[in-house]
User: Fold these one by one.
Assistant:
Number 1:
Amino acid sequence: MRALLPSTLLALAATLPAQDLLVRAKTVVVAPDTVLTDGRFLVRDGKVAYVGSDVPADAAAKATVVDCGDAVVVPGFVLAPTTLGRDGDLAEGALPFTPDLRAAEAFDPWQDELAKLPRAGFTAAVLAPSPRNLAGGLGALVKPGATGGRVATADLHLALSLTAAARNPERPPTSLMGGVDLLRSAFAQAKSAAAAGPDVAVLRDVLQGGRKVAIAADTLVELQAALDLARDFGFEPVLVGARDADKALPRLVAQRAAVVLAPLAPEMRRAQLELPARFAEAGVPFCFSGNPEQTRLSAVLAVRHGLDRQTAWAALGRATATMFGAAGQVGALRQGCAADFAVWSGDPLDLGSSLRAVYVDGARVHGGQPSAAAPAASSSSTAAGGR
Amino acid sequence: MHRSLPLAAALALAALLPAQDGVTAYRNARILPGGAPAIANGTLVVGGGKVLAVGGADTPVPDGATVVDCAGKTITPGLIDASFRAGNTPDMNENGAEVTPHLRVLDSLDPDDPSFVRARSAGVTTVHVMPGSRSVIGGLGVVLKTHAADPQAMVVKNDASLRIVMGSEPSMGNRAIRGGSVDSIYYRRPTTRMGVVWAARKAFFDAKEAMEQSVGAPGAPPSPGMEVLARVLRGQLTAVTTARSEQDLRTALRLATEFGYRTVIDDAQDAHMLVGELKAAGTTVMLGAPSATAVAGSAASDGADPRSATVRLLADAGVPFVITTGSNLAALDLVREAMFAARNGLDAARALDAVTIAPAKLLGIDQRTGSLQKGKDADFVIWSTDPLDPAAAAASVHIDGIAVQVIR
């Protein structure tokens, strides 16, 4: 029943020629370091085709105008590695080492957690195997949509885990030293020409620099082990969780590591809340994990404790996309990126700002129409009727 | 001219100063340098994290040195625990297999573990940590200082030993055919003492066979576990066999003789029953907690019958030994173990040597630590009184010249 209507619409949409959108707003955040005042961009075929003064006049004249008035248009946020509530389908529990499993194949386009993303301004998520396996498999970039979600990129990054969750008393390895040894041996084996197989192929991609690696690690020992692995096999790791990251800061800088921090909460210790600002100062890229509400609140709390807004914006999308190898697609509204954006009443880092609308691939998936399609319509009348 | 400070003030200052800066002279102390006679009115000069001089009252003190008056105090080398239990986490035991010679316990060690804090506050500056005792051949031990900024900086000696365990511990939790589910990793051998020996024997047999084959065909790299066992067989790596009861001690000696490797015996609680055999084998004994039964009642002794006089018996017979806290949770601080050994008839100087220079030599780190000698690491403890006095406390503990523990 639920699939019937959207698929009909999809079939209908496919037959119609796509209409360009011209999005205008008082403030357009193209990327954290590029903010346009009275900005605009043209959306064609679900992607950003032109930005600001590059928009050709004839294309602008023919496009449907989305006038956001005094709103702030920002790139849609990107949720850091998550199982979107499907842990059971994303942890192949019987085996500790399954680097060639694909999170994309456990993706349900209709899952609730995905549909909730736009309500908090998120337009994409890094779906990742659960950290309960030493090598869980390959992540995927997934997106919500009005007609169900979709996998934007399968086989994104390799998800490894050295956390306590990966040590299972019912199958080897049961200890951290056993886990460290297994990963080291696997990478060493992948280096030798004799080894073959789909799992070896994934590790070889990493060794040849063609695939990002995220390693879940919490304690200093786990972080050191992850950094040792990255150093010995020549990759720049993304460390997920990283509870003791402050203790390993010099090594994070030296090895150009990035960090996915656990979400911040107001009751946390000051040192924890100030950590993002310290990371920014040291030049360690980071983003936050957690559900969408936690992620935005984390960025707000980090700003309250000394983080600059530009880095905080990045932590909500740009940095995440870059860390996981999706920088060309999401997290910015540059030419060629997906037209994934959110219309906020003000800076999203201000908790008083409200979310007015969210677009994924140029299609509205949440909120009301910011303005009527007709260019003549005034913004005040549409604001009243839009919601 | 020397600046002279009372001990507490000087130590408080030392704790605040950047590490290893300047020269400090500790004067008027009774110094027990380890492996050498006591110095009644001694002077210890340290700087740059090393011992610069140690001697009597006439030892020259460099100009500009901070002088600390230690009248009434006793200075010893930092204590060394050759069988130290760090933490109690499942991470110390890889239950996936009973023979994992190449696993490194260092990979599982948390430098913030409270056991390190307790050890250094009780004067222990260096420890030898081995993998847990739930595997037959658990893996490689490591020698660490008990304080450093990060785990790598703590390391004194990597791959210091290979741990082998006899007795009932490695088979605990494994399930025989009745009971348990067949798809569990614990549904496997060994489930008995003889099964434990079988697993160890098979590992060394395989290693020996691999060594012999690789002589003919040098192309094939041996598996990492076999390579570690081969190092033991070639005498390049010290085997430490944990064996408590008489039968396990005999098994440990027999296995070593059978494959021609030398082993240290750890936690040898029943050593008093086979002093002659131990002496004949030239085996060094690590005695875990000679105090355990006397103080804590029944220790987890795995069928052993420990006696408080064991250490003295070994000393009298000339069997080399070191005193450790062992794997016994009921063990007291290392200095108390030495104290109990002395109370049960061991010469006081030998008791102290058994927790300083003797373990340093056993672990092959005596060129760096274990005694107070010019050029060695400035690892030392200033005790409130004689360290073997039951009321003794570590007034301050120094590792590489840095005061890591100060009681004000």
Number 2:
Amino acid sequence: MVMEDREEAMREADEKAMPTRRAVLQAALGTAAVATLLSSLYVGAGLIPRVTKTPENEPPQEGDILVYATGAKMNQPILTSDLAEGGPFQLAFPMDPKTKVIRNKEPKNTLLVLKQPPGSYDAKVAAHAAQGVVCYSAICTHLGCTVSLWDAAQKLMRCPCHGALYDPRQDRVVSGPAPQALAQLPIRLEGAQIVVAGAFLGPVGAQV
Amino acid sequence: MFQWFDERLEISRLYNKFLRKAFPVHHSFFLGEIALFAFVVLVLTGIFLTLNYEPSIREVNLPDGSTVPAAYASVLYIDSLPFGAVIRSVHHWSAHIMVAAVFLHLLRVLISGAYKKPRELNWLIGLGLLGLTIVTAFTGYALPYDNYAVTATRIGYGIGASIPFVGGAIAEIMFGGEFPGSTHSVPRLYSIHVLWLPLTLIALIGLHLLIMVKQKHTQPKYAEKVAPGKILGVPLYPQQSVMMGILFLVYLAVTVFIAGAFIAHPIEAFGPPTPQTPAVKPDWYFLWIYGILQVIPSEWQFRFFGAVIGPEFIGGVIVPGILGAVAALLPFVDVSKDKVRYLELPSEHPVRTSVTLGVLMFFIMSTLAGYKIDLNLSNAVLWTLILVVPVLTGVVSYILLKALYGRSWERSSAEPQAAD
């Protein structure tokens, strides 16, 4: 009799404690879930890599000299006398003249430089050109390929990836999928060398 | 010996319960199997490649004095190993074959109506597998780090980054920063290509097969007449296994021959990355997207809650997204009340068949647009081809099907009981 009473009492106590127990467990589970979510977000943020700035991946600085990005004279200064008037253009990187660091670790620093008759530019482009030499970002604003083809017949620049055509004289997109014109980089001449005279005049790289 | 194992592992029970399971035989049923074989070969050749590949773009000097990225140099090293170039070529070709086989398998399921109840889930998993297969192929593309691969991957990065709001983050996470340029890119793509995506593929392929075994494979139409209510097929072991084994060996022989005769992706010919981009074309299964990107003018750009919806997003994400969404919804729109056990004949479902042919023609015409510059075609001509030819194909197919099979449709609608 005594045993049964005790069992009965225990069962009653158990049932009374049930809601509390459930609430405690639910609270524990909830806390654990939130803690897991927050910590995984914190750890997961590490998936977006840190970018370390070095002289090699800095954007073109005023006073940088343009050097050949490709070809036999790679990494040597481009001389205006080397550029044929009327094209084709040369691909270039900016180089710090003091440290001789070439800023080629950032693909967006790829530039194209060309010489046209000084009278052929419209006023906006001519303002930042020097004696017919003009410099643009070579990164197509469509999907970030390098604009590397020269259309000799039309004297236009063509991106090999999806065929965007750019006009160097008016700084505009002639045809193709590119959403914006190439960003012009102001330059000046120091002797025969081409020197960066300021920051890009527009956004650089794929405009997405 | 057999008894010793049987007493411990109950092999004969497994044999009776599972390995005696009958599978129907039809030539079109081997497409999924070929995709599986391609995957197995990809895993095996891939393991070989990982043993010598170096996922890094640090600069190393080659014996000839040139400085190239370590990844590029390690692939040159792989190519110099005995059969190394062939194994890499088999890996590359198998990726093509897997994409093609998965797509053809999907087409077979589509035109035979096998996506209907109870197989809606497996249809969705299959669509996921097609998407994952293509993404896996894409993440492997940049790994040799030659000029061609880098340019092609760069375009993919641009398309990923064009997704409004989340695209930038997705591209950053998948490519480990800006591509090209970031030193984290190749290690990140490598991990995704050799670990995460293959594990996901293995899990989904396993699920796909388990569900197929559980739900039983659809049977060819003739089985309905020959043995109604029964499964017409051969047991998994030994008959089906022998067929599979032979098919696998044939697959291996053919791919090794192709891979040896036509070395895929010759990185020495492309050279290490330079500031110049070559005129790249993506792999054939991306050519239709590439073609659409070529014919979308830059004016197709508008703002949407502060985000830019540009031509890349429309051509590279929205168009494939719509096709994917339509495919995913199909089994819930074209429903069957009863569980489907037998394949439907394409000729008896003229609308579905004609629309499928029209969509295929859309792929072909968009692919043609990928040759816009080579063929010197104008946007107007290409838009006409892309929009008109598929519709025309669909209409003509319907008319032809009606002319050829119209009488049998009347018969089956006249006596619906017989069709069930």
